[in-house]
Design a protein that fits this description.
It is built from 16 helices and no strands. It is mainly alpha-helical and about 325 residues long.
C-alpha cells in the first residue's frame, strides 16, 4: 500500500475503527521502510528527508495511539536521527572548539523525544518509567523477561540508546550520570536475547561503554580496545566501528601516530565503499553485499571528514 493511497483512505473514512484497521494493516510496510533506510548512502539526503517522514508517522500514530508498531518506529526513528545528524554535527562543533553548539541542544531534544516515546511504549507493555530506577536489578530483569516479547527488543534497545546518549551529552549532570548502570542493564537484557540486533549494535555499545567512561567511573580503555579490535575483525565493512575506535579511544589519548595508521585504513575503506555505491560500476568489492550498512558508513564518513578537518588542532 503506497502512502498516497493510505492518506486517501484515512481522509475518506469516518469510522475510527476503519481508520485503525487501515493503519494497522499498513504498519508492517512502515516498519520495513525504516529498516530499508539503513541502505541510504547519502548523509545529506538522510538529514533533509527523515524529519518529514518522522512527522508523518507521528501524525498517523496520533490517529491510533495504541498502535505499538508505529510507536516503535518513532522510538527508533528519533534516536536514529539524533545520532546520525545533530550528534554528528555536534561532534564536529566540539572538534572545532565551539562551546555552545546548537546541534547539541537539538540532539538532546530528539533523544528526549525518542526516550519519551520509548517510556510510553514500555508503559503500554506494563513496565512503568519508575520501574527502571526503583526496582533492583534482579527484579527489573525478571519483569522485562516476563512482560516483553521478541518484537519489543528493538524499541527497548533504542530507548536505552536515547537514555544513554542523553547522559553522555550532559555529563555534568551528576543525577543523570548515576543512571548509567540502568542503561547498561537494559542493553544487557536486549543483547542477551538478540546479540546481533540492529547491525551488531550490542558490540558497538559495549566497546563504547568501556571507552567513554573515565577510569574513576569504571571505564576500561584496554578492554575497550580489545572489544573494538574484535568487532572490527568480525565486521570489517561496518565502518562506524572503526570510527568509534578513533573517536572514543585515539582522540582522547591524542595519539597522533596511531591515528594516522587508522586514518590511512579508513581512507582506503571509504574509497572502496564509495566506489560500490556509484551507479553502474562493475565491482567485486566486499562492500557489494553490505548495503544494509550504508547509512552507518555514511555517518562514519561524515565524522571522519570532521576529524580530518580539525586534526591539526587535536594532535
Amino acid at each position: 500500500m503506497n502512502l498516497i493511497m493510505l492518506l486517501l483512505l484515512l481522509s475518506g473514512v469516518g469510522c475510527s475503527s476503519i481508520q485503525k484497521w487501515t493503519l494497522r494493516s499498513a504498519s508492517p510496510v512502515f516498519q520495513r521502510s525504516t529498516t530499508a533506510l539503513t541502505k541510504e548512502n547519502n548523509w545529506e539526503f538522510f538529514k533533509e528527508s527523515l524529519p518529514a517522514n518522522l512527522k508523518f508517522i507521528e501524525l498517523l500514530w496520533q490517529q491510533d495511539p495504541e498502535n505499538l508498531a508505529l510507536l516503535s518506529i518513532l522510538v527508533k526513528g528519533y534516536a536514529g536521527y539524533a545520532f546520525a545528524v545533530p550528534e554528528t554535527i555536534n561532534f564536529g562543533d566540539e572538534l572545532s572548539g565551539l562551546e555552545d553548539s546548537s546541534a547539541k541542544k537539538e540532539a538532546i531534544v530528539f533523544y528526549t523525544r525518542s526516550l519519551d516515546y520509548g517510556l510510553l511504549y514500555l508503559s503500554k507493555k506494563g513496565i512503568q518509567s519508575s520501574d527502571l530506577l526503583a526496582l533492583d536489578a534482579g527484579k527489573l530483569l525478571k519483569k522485562l523477561s516476563r512482560k516483553l516479547k521478541k518484537e519489543d527488543l528493538v524499541p527497548l534497545m533504542y530507548t536505552a540508546q536515547s537514555w544513554g546518549s542523553l547522559i553522555n551529552l550532559q555529563k555534568d549532570n551528576v543525577a543523570l550520570v548515576s543512571q548509567v548502570p540502568r542503561v547498561k542493564l537494559l542493553f544487557d537484557h536486549v543483547c542477551g536475547k538478540a546479540p546481533a540486533i540492529e547491525q551488531n549494535s550490542c558490540e558497538i555499545f559495549n566497546a563504547q561503554y568501556e571507552a567513554a567512561r573515565p577510569k574513576m567511573l569504571g571505564g576500561n580503555p584496554e578492554k575497550a580496545q580489545e572489544l573494538y579490535r574484535k568487532a572490527i575483525t568480525d565486521h570489517p565493512q561496518h565502518l562506524i566501528i572503526r570510527l568509534g575506535y578513533i573517536q572514543y579511544l585515539l582522540l582522547p589519548s591524542m595519539d597522533g601516530e596511531k591515528y594516522e595508521k587508522e586514518a590511512a585504513v579508513l581512507r582506503e575503506e571509504f574509497a572502496k565503499w564509495s566506489d560500490i555505491n556509484r551507479d553502474g560500476l562493475e565491482n567485486k568489492s566486499e562492500y557489494k553485499g553490505s548495503s544494509d550498512l550504508n547509512l552507518y558508513n555514511a555517518i562514519a564518513k561524515k565524522r571522519f571528514e570532521m576529524i580530518e578537518k580539525n586534526k591539526n588542532k587535536i594532535f
